[in-house]
Amino acid sequence: MALILPVKGIHPLYPASCWFAPNATLVGDIQMGEHCTVWFNAVVRGDVNSIRMGDYVNIQDGAVIHCTYQKSKTILGHHVSIAHNAIVHGCTIEDEVLVGMGAIIMDGAYIEKNAIIAAGAVVTQNTRVKSGTIYAGNPAKYLKDVTPELGEVFLRTANNYVMYSSWFQEKEND
């Protein structure tokens, strides 16, 4: 069972449609939408500020979602995929965004709708990533626009993670 802890009397809030891996950690001021998943060794830590997630957000293996004390909340829109070992810290990510494996998004960054943060990219503090673009590198810079084919990945990935979580739920209920 996932480690779910209150901080200063504030408990994570999530609907029954969410699924958490047995070793996922959720702490403090977190509010999640429908069908969110938090995977193995992922940490969502709302201890020093709040974390808000829309529907169909997946936080994949080893990812860390955190915020900054008295400064930066973390806000994730709908259909957001945070890939393996990514770090998302004190920033805003709009709907239908894919954050690649090992990417880092720093405080005050703002990622607009339908963007992709490439694997290993480092989005520095207060960077704004425009809608429909791909950012890559360290520091992350504009690489190219998202093609219609890549745009379809957003919803497919979010929906796939709900499907994957159902495989574990079936096993838990056997």
Q: Helical content, roughly?
A: 10-25%
Structural class based on helices, strands and sheet pairing: alpha/beta
Major sheet description:
11 strands, parallel
Instruction: Please tell me what the overall shape is.
Output: globular
Strand-residue proportion = 35-45%
Q: For the CA atoms, what is the radius of gyration?
A: 15 Å
Order of helices and strands: EEEEEEEEEEEEEEEEEEEH
Number of strands: 19
Average pLDDT metric: 95
Contiguous low-pLDDT stretches (5 residues minimum) are none
**Euclidean distance between termini CA atoms:** 16 Å
Number of helices in the DSSP assignment: 1
Entry summary:
This protein is of the alpha/beta class and 174 residues long. The chain is built from one helix and 19 strands.
List keywords for this structure.
single chain; 174 residues; alpha/beta; eleven-stranded parallel β-sheet; eight-stranded mixed β-sheet; 1 helix
Would you kindly provide a written description of the structure presented here, covering whatever features stand out?
Strand 18 and strand 19 (141-145) form a beta hairpin. The chain has one helix at residues 148-173; strands at 3-5, 19-20, 25-31, 37-38, 43-53, 58-59, 64-66, 74-76, 81-82, 87-89, 92-93, 98-99, 104-105, 110-111, 116-117, 122-123, 128-129, 133-136, 141-145. Strands 1, 3, 5, 7, 8, 10, 11, 13, 14, 16 and 17 form an eleven-stranded parallel sheet that branches. It has one helix and 19 strands. The longest helix has 26 residues, at 148-173. It is globular. It has 174 residues and is of the alpha/beta class.
